[in-house]
Amino acid sequence: MGLRFAKVAALAVLFSVVIGCGGSTQVSSSGSSYSFDYANLLQSGALFVAVGDGVKSAAGTAGINLKTYNNNYPSAETALSNSQLMVQDKPDVIIDYNAVAGIGDSIGKKFNDAKIPCIAVNVPIKGCAWFNLVNSELGTDTANAVIPIMKSKGWTGSDTVVILLQSAAAGPEVNDCIRYFYVTVSHSVPGFTQANPSDITAQTTKIGDSGWQLEGGGQLDSSYTAVKNALQAIPASKHIVLYSINDDSVLGGWRAISEAHRESNSLVAGLGSDEESRTQLRTNPQWVAEGEIFPGMWGEYLMAMGVAIKKGEKAPGLTKTPQVVMTKDTIDKYFKPGSDQPLSLPALSSEDQYLKGVGILQKFHNIQGL
Questions:
Q1: Phi, psi dihedral angles at 152 (to 5 degrees)
Q2: Could you say which of 292, 312, 334 is where a domain stops?
């Protein structure tokens, strides 16, 4: 998940619950015909609070009884215990956000043996429908927002360096955003060393003379240091294009560029979208794009997925989270200045069209085209 890795411990790429094994809270909805159980990754970090609050709110609007649990990542013991408690609860649908490596198959087997439909959030669980963002598309779409600006300035691979800030520990899915960003730029702007996704791995440091991949760890301070050190070896005559896996990392890199007095010769794009990064997009001429994944609205999709599955719909291999790359021209379509509450969500992706007929998403009145 290209989600803020500093807050999303792993993938790339997002509650009001009781901490610890076996703890749960109940959200009641009078007259509901469905009961869902939801286990969140953990109860800390603004992103996860936003996801959890959104799930609870969405359940209320959708008229679904919801019981929530805290998987307390990285506790494998808690995640396994919660999976058993949810099976014992016998809800209509189980929604599980688990990122502990190596236990997904075991959790999925419990759900499948109990014949309870299940949805895996972010990280796949065997036998469960999968709900996740697509980092490769975010990277590609961001590049496609930046490329016209590069071309309008006459920047080419001969006078420009793309700096990618990775977090190797987050794994390939999270880092797909920066990988596909460079690939798209390299095939669209003359002079860049062309690359395919498989050419850029966690061990890659240079992509010809036009791409540098640095280890930022998804953190502001480490990204600042990495870019500061790299700039000492990148000629001042070179233009800089900066992109990373999350906004904390981008902000650190941007600070290093600003301190080196190279901001007017640079372009930057963000990913994650909080008020600081949206302010940068609105006010900073060099900050030209911002990826948004609407974590507080994931619950709307999860409620619709659960009802669709209960009604016999077959979920595709991946149901996509709402995601969009905002530019200076489009940001006000999605957010008011100073507000974290989206004005609207993008239209349903092709993968998500099956949710239309369920009637749940229409209750929220915030998805374009519905």
A1: -65, -25
A2: 292
State the Cα–Cα distance between residues 140 and 185, nearest whole angstrom. 9
Which CATH number characterizes residue 354's domain? 3.40.50.2300
**256/261 Cα distance (integer angstroms):** 9
CA trace torsion 203, 209, 211, 216 (10° rounding):
60
* Domains of the chain: total: 2
Averaged confidence pLDDT in the chain: 91
DSSP 137: H
Q: Tell me the per-residue pLDDT of 136-194, one tens digit each, with 9 for 90 and over.
A: 999 999 999 999 999 999 999 999 999 999 999 888 888 999 999 999 999 999 999 99
| 140 & 288 share domain | yes
Decide if 333 is inside a domain. Answer: no
| Torsion region of 268: left, alpha or beta (phi above 0 gives left; psi -120 to 50 gives alpha) | beta
pLDDT level of residue 80 (50, 70, 90 thresholds) = very high
247 part of a folded domain: yes
Please give the Cα distance from 282 to 47 (Å, whole number): 22
Angle at 281 between CA 280 and CA 282, to 5 degrees: 90
CA angle 225, 279, 259 (to 5 degrees): 30
Whether residue 92 is found in the same domain as residue 187: no
pLDDT grade for 117, boundaries at 50, 70 and 90: very high
Pairing label, strands 211-215, 129-132: unpaired
How far CA 233 is from CA of 79, 164, 208, 223, 247, in Å, comes to 46, 15, 14, 16, 24
Instruction: Supply the range of the domain harboring residue 199.
Output: 135-292
